[in-house]
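Dear Dr. H.,

I hope your travels went smoothly. While you were away I took the liberty of generating a structure for the chain from your last submission, since the lab meeting agenda had it listed for discussion. I wanted you to have the full record in hand beforehand rather than looking at slides cold. The sequence, exactly as received, is reproduced here:
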Amino acid sequence: MPVEMNDWIVSSIAAAQRSTGFMAWNTFLAVVPMVASLWLFRRPRAARRRLDWWVGLIVFVAFLPNAPYVLTDIIHFIRFIREGATLGTVVFVLVPQYLIFMLIGIEAYTISLINMGHYLRQQGWRNQVSAAELLLHALCAIGIYLGRFPRFNSWDLITDPINLLRYVAQMVRQPQSLAVIVLTFGVIAMLYWPLKHISLALALYWRYIPVQQDTNN
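The corresponding predicted structure, in token form, is as follows:
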């Protein structure tokens, strides 16, 4: 193997490994609300809203911003480029790695809200689905800002609520913070709408295949 190729492989592996740690952790946090949504909204007895259901709903809302939050990790991708990553490493290693990572996060968010919408329709609240989605987009935009800039975490709602509320009270009086939140809200909403319909279309397609196969057999 040529020395140049060997050096490129070694440097590419090193670049990928630099992102592995936070990607694994952030992916785990992104999947938490999706798993919670399955338990809350897809169980046969999900309509029975007991105390554990309400606790699960709080966990779902608190952790939901972690799913679209992965989009902000693009800053690490930019940093690696600025630090001198080669074009080959960027194109063949970092771009696929970050695309997969961000797709997992935003798709976990999309599935979570699809599950919520399914539940609301089952409860006869079809007309409230869009309003609930927009509300969660807004809450996630706020949560992403709190996570990216002052570095609050979902569990700070329990472990550090005073400082969290104090910061939020200051944040709402800062035009720059509000502008970032509004921009984040727009990005989330624009990504969610097509992904929702693509995900629903794929779900229907996968359901149709076994039926078609049984019919042909």
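Two observations you may find useful: The two ends are 52 Å apart (CA to CA). Residues 4 and 131 are 56 Å apart (CA to CA).

With kind regards,
E. W.
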